[in-house]
Amino acid sequence: MSDLEKNDDDAEEERAVDLKLLDDLIKPEKIQGALVDATKQKALFKAWFEDKEMSAAIYKALSAKEHFFTNKNIVFAYGDYLTRMKNDKVLGGWLHTKTLDSVLAFLQAGKLDKMRRTFSKWYYAKKKTAEEVSVLVKAEPGLEKKFLVIVKAYEGFVEKQTRLAKKAVDAT
């Protein structure tokens, strides 16, 4: 591909994106604010991620050779955000794979209280059985092996909650 053809492709890509909006979205003051405040960063990234084409244009503009060293912190942070958002799947309309990743990390780090809190949300707020969670995880190729330990841990959690509820009823 010649340099002329590459320039034509770049020009067509830029025409598809509103340049004024692009400039507004990557204003230095917005970026600087996002670097120091996690809430602002999340809001900025969410705005950037709304439109796939705009998101790609923003990432390309920020990581251009002449701007990369100035923007490297935000480029790396947005790259991480893009990876998380692209890799997250929603199973059954409620179970996010990033939640499963978090629970797995809690388990591996020995943070069982955090894992139990997540399980409590599933069990009490969402009224999900161990079988429902198992079916969702097994339905996605590649997830069953990765999250089997989470499914088993949730089954144990549900069994314990059932025993505790039965014990409370018997005590009355």
Give a verbal description of the structure.
The chain is mainly alpha-helical. The chain folds into two domains: 3-87, no CATH class; 90-171, no CATH class. Helices cover 81% and strands 2% of the residues. The chain has helices at residues 3-16, 19-25, 28-36, 38-49, 52-62, 68-87, 97-109, 112-125, 130-139, 143-171; strands spanning 90-91, 95-96. Residues 1-9 have low confidence and may be disordered. This is RxLR effector protein. It comes from Phytophthora boehmeriae.
Record keyword descriptors for this entry.
single chain; about 170 residues; mainly alpha; 2 strands; about 80% helix; about 0% strand; RxLR effector protein
Query: Could you report the average pLDDT, rounded to the nearest whole number?
Result: 85
* Largest sheet descriptor: 2 strands, antiparallel
Provide the structure class. Answer: mainly alpha
> Which percent bin holds the helix content?
over 70%
> Taking Cα atoms only, what radius of gyration do you get, to the nearest Å?
23 Å
- Taking strands numbered 1, 2, ... along the chain, how are they ordered across the largest sheet? 1-2
Q: Globular, elongated, flat, extended or rod-shaped: what is the shape?
A: elongated
What series of H and E elements makes up the topology? HHHHHHEEHHHH
- What is the terminal separation in angstroms? 80 Å
Strand content: under 5%
Question: Treating each run of at least 4 consecutive H or I residues as one helix, how many helices?
Answer: 10
Domains, number: 2
Low-confidence stretches: 1-9
Q: Give the beta-strand count.
A: 2
